[in-house]
Design goal:
alpha/beta; Aminopeptidase; Alpha-Beta Plaits; 6-stranded mixed sheet; 4-stranded antiparallel sheet; 41% helix
Length: 487
């Protein structure tokens, strides 16, 4: 009799697990009922998303958006704990009792400095200062929709378990989830689900870039720039000297590092030597250790700039996030359900919108894709996919097994953080993609409630991926939430 090694048994178990996930090609009656329930409320959740799109509140200022989602969940019988982790716009909504505890993340912050009407031609809205260029107006209501659908299923079946909706503000640079992780708010959660607006549908076990963000402030001495320049010490010189050194440093750091900055304060008038200047930096890398090494060199550059210009330098870390830690078994489960749900089918009017919007993409970056691609689901891939962005979901994924998906809320070929993304996020195209995500999240959560073995395997895979000696320490240290970082 041939002996089978533990390694071979592991491979066999993985193969059987994958086969079971792929075997189901059509929804069950129960799954059809869950999806139909969401379809019946699609217009309602679309109204919520459009309201948040109109408000376009930036990080830690999402007072109306957060209140709207809390109101919706309260109406559905959830218990709300508001103002958690020292953040007025953060909350946790809970329904049910006992194990397992399944969490769903919701975001609702907008980006500053980009506005657009819901039209396929460039049409900024002059009365607004921010816009949902990352689609978080859809993220929040879509996650709420899925949580409510799971709540309805728990009530109908009498199944034991808890569904939690985490209202997480300031994902765009404010690291809202990091403070919630730091406060232990995910310690009793078994699995966390999330999603994100995109220009395609997929659920691969991808990762992301770890990130540190900070504001460097220089203080000098004001003087008349023509009559007595020798008496002045320019804070702007400090900022520009730092920027020059950082730009030279790019040649001598790992090439896959990303550093970007904006000068947020540079003085008031050319004939006055600026006594205060500020520059806002982001630095990213997939490896946290390399990220922290580059960050230390950036601080040295800032210190040198202050010394050389005889200005005083201080810095404030605004945010810091981990890279995403994928769990392949959970991603396969999510992909199975996303495939059952399917993609986004455009109406003739939506197709015309998509084609017109696509004319603005250009061909330089190979971004031209057919609107019909929104109706497809990308094939599953586990080839260590690395995303080019950063997210505070990363920190969550290192303290609890986490899985996500992307849904085609934008016209295929749309770049995130663009006016085209703002436009689509305010239309029925965005709402259709949002409901694809809501259905996929709900079906995945229900699978986890029904089969404890899925959770056990996810936890085992997750423990192995993060390592036995891992200890979580926030990259932003012990600072309090940066509630004024957008002010």
């Amino acid at each position: 009799m041939r002996k089978i090694t533990f390694h071979q048994l592991g491979i066999l178990a993985l193969s059987l697990f994958a086969t079971q996930l792929q075997a189901q090609s059509t929804p069950t009656k129960e799954q059809r009922e869950v999806m139909a329930g969401l379809d019946n409320k699609s217009a309602h959740y679309g109204t919520l998303s459009k309201q948040i799109w109109d408000w376009a509140e930036v990080g830690y200022q999402e007072e109306k958006s957060s209140a709207l989602l809390q109101q919706e969940l309260t109406k559905e019988g959830f218990t709300i704990k508001a103002g958690v982790a020292g953040i007025p716009t953060a909350f946790v909504a809970t329904f049910g009792s006992g194990k397992p505890v399944i969490g769903i993340l919701a975001e609702y912050d907008a980006l500053p400095g980009i506005t657009q009407d819901a039209t396929p031609e460039r049409k900024p809205i002059d009365s607004k200062k921010s816009g949902h260029a990352c689609g978080h107006n859809l993220f929040g209501p879509g996650s709420v929709a899925s949580a409510v659908a799971v709540k309805n299923w728990l009530q109908k079946t009498g199944k034991t378990g808890t569904i939690q909706l985490y209202g997480t503000p300031a994902e765009e640079g404010g690291s809202g989830k990091v403070y919630m992780v730091r406060e232990g708010m995910f310690n009793n959660t078994d699995v966390v689900l999330h999603w994100h607006p995109a220009d395609r549908n997929g659920a691969d076990p991808s990762t992301s870039l770890a990130n540190i963000t900070a504001k460097f402030r220089f203080r000098g001495i004001a003087a008349h720039a023509a009559a007595s320049p020798e008496r002045g010490r320019s804070a702007l010189d400090g900022v520009e000297s730092m920027n020059y050194m950082i730009n030279m440093m790019r040649e001598h750091i790992p090439s896959d590092t990303r550093i970007h900055y904006v000068i947020t304060k540079g003085g008031e008038a050319p004939n006055v030597v600026p006594d205060f200047a500020e520059v806002y930096y982001y630095v990213r890398h997939k490896n946290r250790t390399i990220l922290q090494d580059v960050w230390k060199r950036m601080v040295k550059a800032a210190e040198g700039a202050g010394l050389g210009t005889e200005t005083k330098m201080e810095y404030e870390i605004i945010g810091g996030v981990y890279n995403l830690l994928p769990v392949e078994s959970l991603s396969k489960l999510m992909h199975k359900n996303l495939s059952l749900v399917g993609g986004v089918a455009y109406s003739p009017e939506e197709t015309r919108f998509a084609e017109k919007l696509g004319e603005s993409f250009g061909t330089s970056f190979g971004s031209i894709r057919k609107p019909g691609e929104a109706a497809t689901v990308s094939p599953f891939s586990n080839n260590d996919l690395l995303g080019s962005a950063s997210t505070d979901v990363g920190d969550v994924s290192w303290v609890v097994p986490t899985v996500g998906l992307s849904a085609a809320t934008w016209v295929p070929g749309t770049a995130a953080h663009s006016w085209q993304a703002v436009a689509a996020s305010g239309t029925s195209i965005g709402v259709k993609g949002m409901m694809v995500a809501a259905k996929s999240l709900a079906l995945t959560a229900i699978d986890l409630f029904k089969d404890p073995a899925l959770i056990q395997k996810a936890k085992a895979d997750w423990q192995q991926a993060r390592g036995a000696d891992f200890k979580y320490e926030a990259l932003l240290g012990n600072r309090k939430p940066a509630l004024d970082y957008r002010k």
